Amino acid sequence: MTVQTALPNQERHSVSGFSGDYFCLDHLNVGYEGTVVIEDVNIGIAQGEILTLIGPNGAGKSTILKTITRQLEPISGVVRFNGVDWTTIERHKLAQMISVLLTERIRPELMTCEDVVAMGRYPYTGSLGVLQPEDQKIVDEAMELVHVSELAEKDFSAISDGQRQRVMLARAICQQPDLMILDEPTSFLDVRYKLELLNILQKMSRERGMTVVMSLHELDLAERVSDRIMTVRPGRPGVIDRFGTSEEIFTPGYIDDLYGLTVGSYDESSGRVELPAITGDPRVFVVCGGGTGTLVFRRLQREGTPFAAGILTENDTDYPVAASLAAELVAVPAFQVPGNEAVQQAQAVIDRCERVTCTLGEDRLTPSLRALVDYAKDKGKLA
């Protein structure tokens, strides 16, 4: 089995050029106490786009987000919103334009979940912070949108981390911002709420023109939800390595290189992460196809059993996992009907295996796969 190597430095995508000028980071150097952590961040996005930052832990994604939200002063460069220098906008006006959901957890004293959500309306309520009926309606709608209405009267400090995350998202939505900044918003959320959160962000960007800038660890989700992706490569200082669409970012071998993967692999085409293959002479041959073999491949890998698989076409849904996990793989190009040569190659591998398992029903066996099953029967190896 071979794993495609990462792109050499000279082949990495350029990060120059803006997709839009609604929200721009203009030659921004960010860091702490004069020390640059990420240098020369120079990108722009259009209104209503979703920009996602990805990169290894400690690369500087949160530092960029904190600089955007003015929790940190930029070492140099400018953040521009609709052509205006971010630092020239008064903070009370900025609070109406931008909502923030960062990884730091707030710990309000004696506040219900509804109280916390209502904090998102304070930029609009004046000095006394009194909610008007329209404000209360917005609070109620935000809580319903993220499924926390039933938590309204509960003490915020007494709910789970996942529930707190959804309450904080409702608070951010309450601000009705032009721009939402989120740092790892899917932390603590189960798969249902991860998908619901990202669906909410996508709908708000499409229907309300809200621009979103966030960081994510889940690369498969970033690939699916983002209009633009910015990759942060750590270093001294770190750099923005790529900026573009998912198709421009997730090229073969790039994620392995960006994250410095030394075991296992990431398949950019499917968003799958796989553990390392069990190497050695295959003991099991898996006759498979159409996605029926994937769970068997992973079971054999967990058991530490080296296996072979085939005959697969390169466009088969079993192919990416087999290519990552199989000690040997018999395959033919996409849309090609396997011929005698592929059958004979697979039979030679079967000769070296202890047993053969078939994941396909009789009605799904192609002539070439049926030949392998019959061959395994004759050899007394079909399990």
Q: Could you describe the 3D structure shown?
A:
The protein is α/β, with parallel strands linked by helices. Strands 5-4-1-2-10-9-3-8-7-6 form a ten-stranded mixed β-sheet, with helices on both faces. Strands 15-14-13-16 form a four-stranded parallel β-sheet, sandwiched between helices. The longest helix is centred in the middle third of the chain and has 18 residues. Helix 5 crosses helix 6.
Keywords summarizing the entry:
383 residues, alpha/beta, Rossmann fold, 2 domains, 10-stranded mixed β-sheet, 4-stranded parallel β-sheet, disordered N terminus
Task: Give the arrangement of secondary structure elements.
Elements: E1 23-32, E2 35-45, E3 50-54, H1 61-68, E4 76-81, E5 84-85, H2 91-97, E6 98-101, H3 113-118, H4 122-125, H5 133-145, H6 161-174, E7 179-183, H7 191-208, E8 211-215, H8 219-225, E9 228-233, E10 238-244, H9 246-249, H10 254-259, E11 265-267, E12 272-274, E13 284-287, H11 294-303, E14 307-313, H12 319-325, E15 328-332, H13 340-352, E16 355-358, H14 367-378
Parallel strand pairs: 2-10, 3-8, 3-9, 6-7, 7-8, 13-14, 13-16, 14-15
Antiparallel strand pairs: 1-2, 1-4, 4-5, 9-10, 11-12
Helix pairs in contact: 5-6, 13-14
